[in-house]
Write a structure and sequence with these properties.
Elements (H helix, E strand, L loop, with lengths): L7 E10 L4 E11 L5 E12 L1 H19 L4 E6 L2 H7 L10 H12 L4 E6 L6 H15 L38
Parallel strand pairs: 1-4, 4-5
Antiparallel strand pairs: 1-2, 2-3
Length: 179
């Protein structure tokens, strides 16, 4: 057994429907817990469904993305769905028959990890996953499938000669330019 600490990942997931039920979609992303860097994004439309079904689909997609990256990671799932967080934590019963298979599916993926913790977060702290879910629903409304954006390469910054600053009054001279 290795003394190396397990990799830590954060899954942020969301789902939504336009109408309840209505056209629905989910969004999920995986972050490195230490740096906050986004490692993966997933989103998709699921046809006509309830908001809760879409939330579970987001959870499943996020857990699968994390498993693809590091099945040995410790995972924290962050969602703004109190229902899903409480049900997956085992504190609330799953009464609705349509939710049981989804919760079972999510639990099966979660069992691949040594540890999964579920955390409820306010909606405003889940904006990235919410944006992905809305992008998927928008794409479906336009007859398209959501696709992740192409990675952007940084634009080259042209090198310019340092400028001379003319100062007056009490101001200290500016620091030398960073090169």
């Amino acid at each position: 057994m290795s003394d190396r600490p397990a990799r830590r990942l954060v899954v942020e997931a969301d789902g939504g429907s336009r109408g309840n039920p209505g056209p629905a979609g989910y969004g999920a992303l995986v972050r490195d817990a230490g740096t906050g860097a986004v490692l993966a994004e997933r989103a998709g439309a699921i046809g006509r469904a309830t908001n809760n079904v879409a939330e579970y689909q987001g959870l499943i997609a996020g857990l699968r993305a994390a498993a693809d990256l590091a099945p040995d990671a410790d995972v924290e799932v962050r969602m703004d769905s109190k229902l899903v967080v409480e049900q997956m934590s085992g504190r609330w019963k799953i009464k609705h028959p349509a939710m049981r298979p989804l919760a079972t599916q999510a639990a099966e993926v979660a069992r691949e990890f040594p540890r999964v913790r579920y955390t409820w977060i306010p909606r405003e702290r889940n904006s990235h996953a919410d944006r992905l879910a809305n992008e998927a629903m928008d794409a479906a409304a336009q007859g398209r499938t959501w696709e992740p954006p192409e990675p952007q390469s940084p634009e080259p910054v042209p090198h310019t000669a340092p400028t001379t600053h003319r100062l007056s009054g009490w101001m200290a001279p500016p620091a030398p330019p960073t090169t």
